[in-house]
Write a structure and sequence with these properties.
Number of domains of chain B: 2
CATH class of the largest domain in chain B: Mainly Alpha
Strand order of the largest sheet of chain C: 1-2
Order of helices and strands of chain B: HEEEEEEHEEEEEHHEEHHEEHHHHHHH
Strand content of chain C: under 5%
CATH architecture of chain C: Orthogonal Bundle
Radius of gyration of chain B: 23 Å
Structural class of chain B: alpha+beta
Number of strands of chain C: 2
CATH class of chain C: Mainly Alpha
CATH topology of chain C: ABC transporter involved in vitamin B12 uptake, BtuC
Structural class of chain C: mainly alpha
Largest interface: B-C, 53 and 55 residues
Largest sheet of chain B: 4 strands, antiparallel
Number of strands of chain B: 15
CATH architecture of the largest domain in chain B: Orthogonal Bundle
Helix content of chain C: 55-70%
Number of helices of chain C: 14
Shape of chain C: globular
Strand content of chain B: 5-15%
Oligomer: heterotrimer
Radius of gyration of chain C: 20 Å
Strand order of the largest sheet of chain B: 5-4-7-9
Chains: A alpha/beta (about 325), B alpha+beta (about 450), C mainly alpha (about 325)
CATH topology of the largest domain in chain B: ABC transporter involved in vitamin B12 uptake, BtuC
Distance between the termini of chain B: 40 Å
């Protein structure tokens, strides 16, 4: 199912093609249990573990991700979400485990090959190419460029046409993400939110089937959040599968069709947003199982949010 | 340029001879006009002292005939050792002699009864005149070790390697700590080593000796002053250069290049003041070796081993036990986290720079004591220090020490099979091979290199 | 003090064969460091491989000059592969340390007594430049008014600057292509590029090889220039000077290495001549207790070291660079 990324070329408005309803219907019959089988999984992972010294950062027995749906991966800090992302996309090597994408085993595969297969990720701390312009950031995302081979690079004749086509496609996506005004600016000059947008837009240049977003809302100002939400939803409408890590519970509740909860490296709960957020195991995981006073979800989320912002701030200062 | 290489080769040779226990005092080169050292004329001599090492103190051996031949086999000169065991054979003016190779022979039949060479294979020594300096040779005399076996030679080389390892470890510890806390790959670390050696030289060259109750403590004072000055130098360098750069948010690669500039600057500044000549300190120049079992070791080496072991143990204990040491490790681990848990990161880094530079300076003096030195001794061993640190694991304390021992001992012991001139090459190859199999170093953590 | 002599002497060096050598070496570093972010501190090693194998092919093994050139280029590719395989997956500083170590391994090995009969030990190799001399179309002294060269020197710099020009054009063509874009992307953030489906390792390797080839050509020239190949020409400082040349002209700028080399050698020679004049003769201008003639020869390196530091701190984009496009994250 090739993703049709250029279709809604004008505006970022969320065009409802009914994919949300489709996805939710398909997931309706799925059990609300960790590792529940899905009707049409795009990713299936088994026994994936990653050890850091004495700490088992990831220990996922079995998990499936439904095709065409937006799946959220949540969990308290240190639950292993980003590590799990890194493992799935080949940016880190697990100690054990096997996982497939469209039925093809990805274990031991290099990150760039994973991306070429159509499983593309973004990063928690955005990785825009600061000293390249926005449009160059986009162009580099296109796959199968003949001008990227050393033998042909020196002769524009070989790649000029393709470059033009890629630039047009990039222009359309930039427009959709409302970045076309920044087209010739250095990516380093963009704001945090714009960087998130650019990174997502750039990922689309790869024409992914599955797009994996690592905290797309972190560091984004509230004004941009709504439009970012729209963008993520529109990815699903374009036929892509979205898998994202997020701490922003509004976003999780708002856009996800399915939620997977990790704690201490394991998948502890699964289900549609509302059912998961009411799950005792989830509340225990976030608060520690020996909490004596029951915080409501809003408060808890606020605390988490603050902690997260603190964390990101520290990270950025450390950079 | 040519002189520089030759002295590099001479350094290698001297190290080797020290290790073999046959080195006397390789006299300092005659520098052109500037800093005057020992030699007062242009004539190059072969000289040496024959002593029987079985005696304590070693007794001079008189009446032994020594001859020198050039590479065509022509006799150049002869001499017989005098009552002090000394002999001098002039070779000629330095311009005629530099670059030539001579064979120095000891006539075994003239040895007094009951004495023989400790190493019967060393009746002849071949020496090339690399620089305009007298050549010192020693033929250790004592009980013949019947056919110095492979194992004995390995042991002897191992002792030399041990001395070098300890000195390397002090330099490596500083480099590794600075890397750990600041992320800086400091290419000017070699100049911290040289700084110590030069400060000690300055003290040593002050007129007169420093004595306490009749004991000559010039060198002891020199070592102490060098250590203190090096510590201050490191502290000041951080304050004046590295701290402002950190404040500006200078990238690590940019800082690395700044350190290269600093290295070139300091190295040439050192040469400006100290000249290109090879230097030796005035005290403890030609100690007679003690024999411990089959192994020869000079009292100076023993002193260096004991002293540097004490220093290393003290520093590592301090890192392991004291508050400041723990803070240092915390900063190495995660500066942001350390800062947020109330550790004054800047102060820790300041101390690390001071201690690291002090250790490097100390290693410089001791290195100068054991093998002589010139203005780029630190630069010459910088790569070995890097090799030790990377091999052990960049940024780790124990890794730096372990790496130093492996590199230091490997360098010496490898000369059993590798030509001495290629021993550094062997050590650097070990580094590259080790990176292939264990990129994070022996004691490093895998996460750190990704 | 003869200002005109000072300037013409400096200009002579700035356009001469030495500047060619460093321009070539720095073009290689520009590809590796300027565009890809690879810290190759072993450019001297590539120069050694180039210079020594060209020279030894002719002088030791009696092969043709062109076989020597091919051997030098081929082996520099092998060296790049050998260095790249263990280190290109590691952090930048590892490559720096491994390459600097490798260059020293090569230098000490090729200059060793053990390999004396092949590479001539510390004295190095001579008598390999005949083919190159025979190709010389210039038979008389070339006088350009202010500066003048012997025919052989002019042939060296003439052919050398042509090679530099070719190198510059190649780099320009490469860096405006999608291939060059991937390199720049890797310099900025290799994980980002990897996440977009590019084989980062392969690109780094290609960059290392191309830069190394330029190093080998610089090695050919250093040998031809001195009509002698010995370990002195390929010491660690050679690499550091090439970096200074690159940073002076501006990293990640196509003409950076060329401008850098010309400016560098002009300034270095100027300083050398200047301090030489100050301390020359029986009654020098500069009192001997401040600076002797011997010490004067060190001034250029002292100032160069200082300049490299200041350049990196205050003008990391080079003298003509644009700070916004700065390739190095210096801030």
């Amino acid at each position: 199912m090739p993703a049709d990324t250029t279709a809604p070329a004008s505006g970022s408005e969320y065009v409802d093609r009914g994919r949300a309803a489709e996805a939710r219907k398909a997931l309706a019959s799925v059990e609300h249990e960790p590792g529940a089988p899905k009707p049409d999984p795009i990713v299936v992972a088994d026994e994936v573990t990653r050890q850091f010294g004495g700490l088992k950062a990831v220990d996922v027995a079995h998990v499936e991700i439904q095709r065409g749906a937006i799946t959220a991966l949540i969990g308290p800090n240190g639950a292993g979400k980003t590590t799990f992302f890194n493992l799935l996309t080949g940016f880190d090597r697990p100690n054990t485990g096997r996982w497939t994408f469209n039925g093809k085993s990805l274990a031991g595969m290099s990150a760039y090959k994973v991306a070429r297969l159509g499983m593309v990720r973004t990063f928690q701390l955005t990785k825009v190419l600061a000293k390249l312009t926005v449009i160059e950031n986009m162009r580099i995302g296109a796959t199968g460029q003949s001008g990227e081979s050393l033998a042909r690079a020196m002769f524009p004749f070989f790649w000029r046409a393709q470059e033009k086509a890629n630039t047009e496609r990039a222009g359309a996506i930039l427009q959709r993400f409302k970045l076309d005004a920044k087209r010739d600016d250095f990516a380093g000059s963009l704001s945090g939110g714009q960087r998130k947008l650019l990174e997502m837009a750039r990922a689309l240049m790869v024409e992914p089937e599955l797009i994996m977003l690592d905290e797309p809302m972190a560091g984004v100002n509230p004004a941009l959040k709504q439009s970012l939400l729209g963008h993520v939803k529109s990815l699903r409408e374009d036929g892509m599968t979205v898998f994202f890590v997020e701490h922003d519970m509004d976003m999780v509740r708002d856009i996800s069709d399915w939620v997977i909860v990790m704690a201490q490296g394991q998948v502890i709960a699964e289900g549609p947003p509302d059912s998961v957020m009411a799950d005792q195991r989830v509340i225990d995981a976030y608060l520690g199982s020996h909490h004596d006073q029951v915080l409501d979800f809003e408060e808890e989320e606020k605390i988490l949010q603050e902690a997260q912002e603190e964390h990101v701030k520290n990270e950025e200062e450390a950079q | 340029m040519r002189v520089r290489q030759s002295s590099a080769a001479a350094l290698v040779l001297m190290t080797l001879f020290t290790v073999l226990g046959i080195s006397g005092n390789a006299q300092a080169a005659t520098p052109p006009a500037t800093v005057a050292t020992s030699a007062d004329d242009d004539t190059i001599d072969v000289k040496g002292k024959l002593v029987d090492t079985r005696e304590k103190p070693p007794a001079p051996v008189e009446g032994v005939q020594i001859s020198v031949e050039d590479d065509a086999g022509e006799l150049v000169g002869e001499a017989t050792s005098d009552a002090d065991g000394l002999f001098v054979i002039p070779l000629g003016a330095d311009i005629d002699v530099v670059g030539e190779t001579y064979t120095i022979k000891l006539d075994e039949s003239t040895l007094p009864e009951g004495t023989e060479l400790r190493n019967p294979d060393q009746v002849e020594l071949e020496r090339q005149v690399k620089i305009s300096a007298d050549i010192s040779v020693t033929f250790p005399i004592g009980e013949g070790t019947v056919g110095t076996g492979w194992a004995v030679r390995a042991l002897q080389l191992g002792v030399g390697g041990l001395v070098f390892s300890l000195l390397l470890a002090m330099a490596a510890l500083g480099l590794s700590m600075i890397f750990g806390t600041t992320g800086l790959t400091n290419f000017a670390h070699g100049e911290l080593i040289t700084f110590g050696a030069l400060i000690a030289l300055f003290i040593d060259r002050l007129p007169g000796n420093i004595t306490v109750g009749g004991m000559n403590i010039t060198m002891v004072t020199a070592i102490a002053v060098a250590m203190v000055m090096s510590t201050l130098f490191g502290w000041a360098q951080d304050k004046a250069l590295w701290k402002p750069l950190r404040r500006r948010g200078t990238g690590l690669i940019a800082a690395m290049i700044v350190s290269i500039g600093l290295s070139i600057f300091l190295r040439n500044l050192y040469q400006y003041f100290a000249g290109a000549a090879n230097h030796n300190y005035s005290q403890w120049t030609s100690p007679s070796p003690w024999s411990i079992g089959p192994v020869l070791i000079t009292p100076k080496d023993v002193g260096v081993i004991i002293f540097s072991t004490i220093v290393l143990v003290a520093v590592t204990l301090a890192i392991a036990k004291t508050r400041l040491g723990k803070a240092t490790r915390a900063v190495s681990d995660n500066p942001a986290l350390a800062a947020s848990s109330g550790i004054n990161v800047d102060r820790v880094i300041s101390v690390v720079w001071a201690v690291g530079a002090g250790l490097a300076g100390l290693s410089g003096v001791l290195l100068g004591m054991t093998q002589g030195f010139d203005y780029q001794i630190g630069f010459k061993i910088l790569l070995l220090v890097f090799a030790a640190v990377v091999l052990g694991g960049l940024g780790t304390v124990w890794g730096a020490i372990l790496g130093s021992f492996i590199i230091g001992i490997f360098i010496e012991v490898s000369t059993l099979v590798v030509p001495a001139e290629l021993k550094f090459v062997g050590a650097l190859l070990v580094l590259i091979l080790a990176l292939l199999f264990r990129p994070q170093g022996l004691l490093g953590r895998a996460e750190r290199v990704g | 003090m003869d200002i005109l002599n000072l300037l013409s002497g400096s200009l002579q060096q700035a356009l001469g064969p030495t500047a060619v050598v460093y321009a070539l070496a720095a073009i290689g570093l520009n590809v590796q460091f300027g565009y890809t972010g690879l810290l190759n501190f072993g450019q001297a090693g590539f120069m050694a491989i180039g210079g020594y194998f060209m020279a030894a092919s002719v002088a030791t093994w009696g092969l043709s000059f062109w076989v020597g050139i091919a051997l030098g280029l081929g082996l520099s590719v092998v060296l790049a592969l050998l260095l790249g395989i263990p280190t290109l997956r590691l952090r930048a500083d590892y490559l720096a340390i491994v390459t600097i170590a490798a260059a020293e391994i090569i230098r000490q090995t090729l200059g060793s007594v053990t390999l004396l009969k092949w590479f001539g030990g510390q004295d190095g190799l001579i008598n390999f430049q005949r083919t190159f001399v025979e190709m010389n179309p210039f038979s008389s002294r070339v006088d350009l008014g202010i500066v003048a060269w012997r025919p052989f020197d002019f042939w060296l710099l003439f052919s050398g600057w042509i090679l530099v020009a070719i190198g510059v054009v190649v780099v320009w063509l490469l860096m405006r292509s999608p291939w060059g874009r991937v390199l720049k992307g890797i310099r900025e953030d290799e994980d980002a590029v990897r996440s977009l489906g590019k084989n980062v390792y392969s690109y780094k390797m290609q960059s290392l090889i191309i830069g190394g080839l330029f190093g080998a050509v610089a090695g050919f020239y250093v040998a031809l220039q001195h009509t002698n190949m010995n370990p002195t020409w390929v010491a660690t400082d050679t690499t550091f000077f090439a970096y200074t040349v690159l940073l002076l002209g501006g990293a990640a700028r196509v003409l950076g290495p060329v401008v850098g080399s010309i400016v560098f050698w002009f300034l270095i020679t100027f300083l050398d001549l200047f301090f030489g004049i100050l301390t020359r003769g029986a009654d020098p201008f500069m009192p001997e207790w401040i600076m002797t003639n011997q010490q004067a020869s060190l001034m250029r390196l002292i100032i160069m070291g200082l300049a490299l530091m200041l350049l990196m701190i205050f003008r990391p984009q080079g003298i003509f660079g644009d700070r916004r496009e700065l390739a190095i994250d210096a801030r």
